[in-house]
Amino acid sequence: MGALVLPGAAALTAQPPTPLRVVYPRRLPVIDTFFEYDWAVLRTALARTVSRYGPFELKPSAEAMSSRRVTLELAMPKGVIDIFVRATSPDLEKQFQPIRIPVDKGLIGMRVLLVRKEDLPRFAAVRTLQDLRKFRVGQGKGWADNDILAAAGIPVVEGTYYEGLFAMLSARRFDFFSRSADEVMREYEERRVSVPEMALESTLLLHYPLPRYFFVRRDAAGDKLGQRVKAGLEMMIQDGSLNALFRQHKSPLLEKLALHKRRVIELSNPSLSPDTPLQRSELWLPPGSTRP
């Protein structure tokens, strides 16, 4: 006679589903707080999709990583990270799979200038792109927006490392340092003592379309993770939680910069992919706005 199986016994012995393990890059301490918003968005997107995709475990890498190390790790099939966030470029989109929803609503394309104090009157007189072409901009080597600025006819001076660019500004190697609206205040406050001749320009706002995307590997695991994150982001757009996180993390800084009072100078992005969702107005913050 066969063994008696009690109703529900199989369910009692079933193992819970294994959580999806997602590792994002721990960044160097000086810039780690800049990414807090991005990882809050990622965590919320994964949480929105638990009923469809199952549980997850999201955590940073064991070691802090430079931008170069981040790229190398995601390029390796068994690299220690599964996802990163960065301003897009043709090279990145070729190497990795972009999730085409701008995490920061295009904010990285809103640029505020760091200049020398003595040059503030010269920048206050700028009214057009033609006026701005008289000045040299400082950029890091290989940055995503170097080609945008060069295509606009603005002379680009490249530095080999980020921290050295502030010294190059002081040494008159270039005339302004173009920074995203959500990082410029922190950078200025952190260096106003060590670089006393540097000033935060208050009249201009450069703008160009430059989305920051989450990127995953171009393999089966990356496809699955990408589909889940995109589904979660779409849910956040629908329920308003993406805008709520933006207002919590970004809007206070933008309001301090009085973006709505600045003259906007528009630049085109000649390297932008035709797949960029520019037609979806709900994904983008209008230039000069502080709250979606």
Can you lay out the helices and strands and say which pair or pack?
Blueprint: H1 9-13, E1 20-27, H2 29-32, H3 36-48, H4 50-53, E2 56-65, H5 67-75, E3 83-87, H6 90-95, E4 97-99, E5 110-116, H7 120-124, H8 129-132, E6 137-140, H9 146-151, E7 156-159, H10 164-170, E8 176-180, H11 184-191, E9 198-200, E10 204-207, E11 212-216, H12 220-239, H13 241-249, H14 251-256, E12 263-266
Parallel strand pairs: 1-2, 6-7, 6-8, 10-12
Antiparallel strand pairs: 3-11, 4-11, 5-8, 5-9, 5-10
List keywords for this structure.
single chain, 292 residues, alpha/beta, D-Maltodextrin-Binding Protein, domain 2, 2 domains, 7-stranded mixed sheet, 14 helices, 12 strands, globular
Quick structural overview:
The chain has 292 residues and is α/β, with parallel strands linked by helices. The protein has helices spanning 9-13, 29-32, 36-48, 50-53, 67-75, 90-95, 120-124, 129-132, 146-151, 164-170, 184-191, 220-239, 241-249, 251-256; strands spanning 20-27, 56-65, 83-87, 97-99, 110-116, 137-140, 156-159, 176-180, 198-200, 204-207, 212-216, 263-266.
Describe what this molecule looks like in 3D.
With 292 residues, the protein is an alpha/beta fold. The protein folds into 2 domains: 18-106 and 211-239, Periplasmic binding protein-like II (D-Maltodextrin-Binding Protein, domain 2, 3-Layer(aba) Sandwich); 108-207, D-Maltodextrin-Binding Protein, domain 2. It is 36% helix and 21% strand. The chain has 14 helices and 12 strands. Strands 5, 6, 7, 8, 9, 10 and 12 form a 7-stranded mixed sheet that branches. A 3-stranded antiparallel sheet has the order 3-11-4, with helices on both faces. Strand 6, helix 9 and strand 7 (156-159) form a beta-alpha-beta unit. Helix 3 crosses helix 12. The longest helix is centred in the last third of the chain and has 20 residues, at 220-239. It is globular. The model has no long low-confidence stretch (mean pLDDT 92).
